């Protein structure tokens, strides 16, 4: 190993990162949509679990501030986010109040502005904002990777103006619709000066406020297992984008790891070798889903996720 590479790896892997966790929910007590719903009974069980196991539920802003200041984020911190701004949140609000748990709603402005019956109104949001934070989840909830740069900017600007008009402030956080993004999309959204951007990649908080991983909670989620997931600092070289065939995976991790496990959506886990801090494996997998997750895992449930999304425009 060259000295330069060694120096790079040493500085790359000695940075602080956080094993705190951000949960993402969608609907509450609404069994019409089992794939996005959490019953109130289940939510109460999860809140009780957090309380009993000494997790501290904190506002998203606390985590974001620590990351921006380069300070250590306590591992027992948990942030609760709720995407889309569904009306059913009002059913869960009393439980949040009872446990005194802060939350961040990430809302799409279009359904709210058009008063779709399933969504919180501007008035609801004003009332709710006394108890939690409200962030942004795009205007029209598009698949961002199917839009041009111009269209992404337009969707974002439209939503931000509505936000300011109805709630009196610009939101600080952006969450990708469907959790879909790539490096180009990330770059476009970073120009709007959000203090944090949230995805839906499985993982702990990590060290980058513009790439915050979240754990999806739906139905009877295994909260205990989810909270056991730790952050693996990794430099993904391949894949960077979606191809019909996933030929190869190449990732740099801390050279202290000698073996790892690799997951690809539709193919499950396999064991892979780590040589001098590098995982390099030929796969030739025909991808089965438009949204494919590639996950690298080492001991102590440390994981890093790379999401690749099929798109007409960016591939
Ligand atoms: Zn959404």
In short:
With 315 residues, the protein is an alpha/beta fold. It has 9 helices and 18 strands.
Question: Can you put this structure into words, describing what you see?
Answer:
It is a single chain. This protein is α/β, with parallel strands linked by helices and 315 residues long. The protein has 9 helices and 18 strands. Strands 1, 4, 5, 6, 7 and 10 form a 6-stranded parallel sheet that branches. Strands 11-18-17-14-15 form a 5-stranded mixed sheet, with no helix packed on it. A 3-stranded antiparallel sheet has the order 12-13-16, with no helix packed on it. Strand 12 and strand 13 (245-252) form a beta hairpin. The longest helix has 19 residues, at 149-167. It is globular, with a radius of gyration of 20 Å. Bound molecules: zinc ion. Zinc ion (ZN) binds at residues 83-84, 137, 141, 177.
Number of strands: 18
Bound molecules: zinc ion
How many independent structural domains?
2
Low-confidence residue ranges = none
């Amino acid at each position: 190993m060259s000295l330069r590479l060694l120096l790079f790896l040493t500085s790359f892997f000695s940075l602080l990162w956080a094993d705190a966790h951000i949960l993402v929910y969608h609907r509450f007590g609404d069994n019409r949509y089992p794939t996005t719903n959490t019953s109130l009974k289940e939510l109460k069980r999860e809140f009780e679990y957090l309380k009993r196991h000494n997790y501290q539920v904190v506002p998203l802003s606390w985590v974001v501030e620590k990351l921006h200041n380069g300070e250590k984020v306590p591992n027992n911190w948990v942030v609760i986010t709720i995407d889309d701004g569904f009306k059913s949140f009002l059913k869960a609000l009393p439980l949040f109040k009872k446990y005194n748990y802060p939350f961040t709603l990430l809302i799409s402005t279009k359904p709210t502005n058009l008063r779709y019956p399933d969504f919180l109104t501007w008035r609801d949001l004003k009332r709710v904002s006394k108890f939690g934070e409200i962030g942004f989840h795009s205007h029209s909830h598009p698949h961002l990777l199917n839009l041009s740069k111009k269209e992404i900017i337009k969707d974002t600007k439209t939503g931000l103006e509505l936000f300011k008009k109805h709630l009196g402030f610009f939101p600080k956080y952006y969450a990708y619709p469907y959790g879909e993004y790539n490096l180009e999309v990330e770059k476009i959204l970073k120009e709007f000066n959000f203090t944090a951007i949230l995805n839906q990649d499985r993982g702990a908080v990590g060290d980058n406020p513009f790439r915050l991983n979240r754990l999806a909670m739906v139905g009877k989620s295994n909260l205990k297992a989810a909270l056991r997931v730790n952050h693996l600092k990794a430099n993904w070289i391949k894949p960077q984008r979606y191809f019909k065939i996933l030929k190869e995976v190449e990732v740099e991790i801390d050279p202290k790891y000698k073996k790892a496990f690799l997951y690809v959506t539709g193919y499950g886990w396999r064991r892979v070798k780590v040589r001098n801090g590098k995982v390099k494996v030929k796969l030739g997998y025909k991808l089965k889903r438009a949204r494919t997750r590639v996950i690298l895992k080492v001991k102590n449930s440390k994981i890093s996720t790379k999401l690749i999304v099929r798109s007409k425009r960016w591939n």
